[in-house]
Amino acid sequence: MRFIDSIMQIFNHAIKINQDNKYNKQPSFGYRLPKTIFTDIKDIPHLKCGCCGKDTFRTSDITNLLKGFEAGSKRALENEALARFRETEAFAFLTELSKANPKATIRTLLNSKDAVEKFKDLHERTQLDIRHMALISEGITVKAPRVIAKLSKFKEYFGEDLQLVFEQMERYAEKYPQNTFAEIFNKSEVKDFHIERYNASKREKLSRQIEVFKQLKEIGNKLSPADRARLLKTNSDAIKLLNLGIYEPDIKKALVDDLYLNFYKDCSNRRIKKKLMQTVAGFPYDVISPVDSFIVKSVDKKRTDKDIVMKFLRDMQSTFEHAKPHSKQGSDDWENGIVFCQRCNRKRADLPYPFFLGFFPQMKKNIQQQCNKIMTFIRHGKLTGHDSYPFDIKKTLLEETDNIIKLNITKYLKFKEHQAELKQKRAESVFANDDKWYNEISKSLADIDERIAEALKTVRQLKKTRQMISNSVNEAAAKREKSALTLEGAEVIYKNALRSLIEDGKTNKNIKCRRIKKRKD
Q1: Maximal C-alpha separation, the chain
Q2: Angle 48-50-54 (CA atoms, 0-180°, nearest 5)?
Q3: At residue 27, what are phi and psi to the nearest 5 degrees?
Q4: Suppose 104 and one of 74, 108, 379, 511 were both cysteines; which one would form an S-S bond, judging by CB atoms 3.0 to 4.6 Å apart?
């Protein structure tokens, strides 16, 4: 029986320990929590996008990744971007430096001790050219095949459009292995081919749009004047949407379809729906190839090799997604923010969440997973300054999604409750200690007050005695003064009597002498 009781005591103790640690278990994310303490939610490593659920990359991650694409000094000096400097003293200076370490970047070479000393002795114009070359070299990457090899590690993060662009770039890397992508895109055969296709696609898109609007005009001619005016207004709104570049083709199509369905709901002619929607379905949305668009824009905007690589990497970057869009006065505080990769952030634009969730139903699950990780970091003290984030973002998402996304923060609430209980216990313990100390001090103070009261009583008695003695002293002083005056008068009398006595003696002596003299005579 005693043995069973002992076992039960151990079991109960284990349960108590488990409950105390219930809300502080290590999360199972496949890695340990970092030692770093973060203050920005976007800086949490391996935080998954709240929309697509893929890993997002911090700004520092992107910067470090870009460094791996930078060309060494030898390759950079061979690049056409620096061709105009080849006959200059600056080019010769960098070529000489490159011989010692051709794989190091130009910026790295210039930061070496020897280079800094030599640089000081160069002419001012040469120094300016070197700085200019170093700046240009930062935009030069390794050659196309190596860029493909490095980017292929992140292929799963690319959107459909970038997947197509990447596949075309793979083909160009095989065809032009000695060039970078900026050089390849600017080759006349590549540039002209894609520009021609791009312009042809734009013409086809415009032609198809015009044809659809002609058909819509014919439909409008069969409507009442009021319905015709409303259709014209709907067509005008459709043109604005079609010309907007912020929405993806599938989202743009859904928005345009909604415009015409809303028109049909209030239309007096109920027989035109089929014809209307068949006509609207003819609008072109994805006529222009993303490959042509990417290459043409790279040429037009004079993108460097680095800029081209950044177009791929930036889509993976973690961004602040405004739950309530910024265009609708949504704040920049984290109570209005979740983390999206840049690609998903761009897709959402300012669309209402209830509409957007129709395209990304997995967002509900992914935001919950993201929030779970954020709450874990907060619970373990790895994210500071965001204790109220789970409550705030839950409220914001309920409002912005029309109660579709309801974050489950029960564990966090229990953690906060448990934390509050611990704080309360600590506070109660501190209060008990303080109360005990207070009582002890109060008693000591009462004792001191009592002793002070006694001392004051003694002081009052001493003051009274002092007053009596002071009065006696004053009285004695008065008597002493009077006695002093009497003594002084007595001394004067005594001196006068003594003087009279001396004079009387002298007189008697003289009388006596006269008598004697008289007798003799």
Answers
A1: 195
A2: 40
A3: -70, 155
A4: 108
Q: What are phi and psi of 380, to 5 degrees?
A: -95, 10
How far apart CA 93 and CA 188 sit, in angstroms, is 32
Could you say which DSSP state residue 293 is in?
H
* 142, 76 Cβ separation under 8 angstroms: no
Closest C-alpha among 114, 181, 96, 185 to residue 142: 181
Tokens of 425: 């216990």
Please state, in angstroms and as integers, the Cα–Cα distance from residue 513 to each residue in 16, 331, 521, following that order: 137, 139, 12
List, as one string, the DSSP characters of 232-273: HHHHHHHHHHHH-SSS-HHHHHHHHHHHHHHHHHT-S-GGGH
Tens digit of pLDDT for each residue in 95-148?
Answer: 999 999 999 999 999 999 999 999 999 999 999 999 999 999 999 999 999 999
* Helical ranges in 42-105 per DSSP H: 59-67, 73-78, 89-100
The tokens describing 11, both together, are 């079991």
Q: Are 251 and 351 in contact (CB under 8 A)?
A: yes
Q: Confidence class of residue 23 from pLDDT cuts 50, 70 and 90?
A: very low
Place of tokens 């969730």: 357
Residue whose structure tokens are 């907007």: 244
Cβ-contact 281, 211 below 8 angstroms: no
Taking CA atoms, 97 is separated from 136, 159, 255, in Å, by: 17, 41, 58
Is the four-CA dihedral 389, 390, 395, 400 of positive or negative sign?
Answer: positive
pTM of the model: 0.74
* Angle, CA 265 vertex, CA 260 and CA 266 arms, to 5°: 105
pLDDT band at residue 74, thresholds of 50, 70 and 90?
very high
Q: Whose CA is closest to 130, among 95, 78, 102?
A: 95
Q: Cα separation of 253 and 281, whole Å? A: 8
Separation of CA 67 from chain center: 24
**In angstroms, rounded to a whole number, what is the distance separating the alpha carbons of residues 230 and 282?**
20
**Residue of 376, 404, 302, 347 lying closest to 52 (CA atoms):** 347
Of 140, 133, 157, residue with least CA distance to 62 = 157
Q: What is the DSSP letter of 123?
A: -
Q: What is the CA radius of gyration of the chain?
A: 50
What percentage of the chain's residues is helix, strand, coil (to nearest 5)? 75, 5, 25
- Phi then psi for 340, rounded to 5 degrees? -120, 150
- Taking CB atoms within 8 Å and a gap of at least 24, the contacts of 384-392 are 384/37, 384/38, 384/39, 385/39, 386/41, 386/334, 388/335, 389/41, 389/334, 389/335, 392/334, 392/335
Quote the DSSP letter at residue 83: G
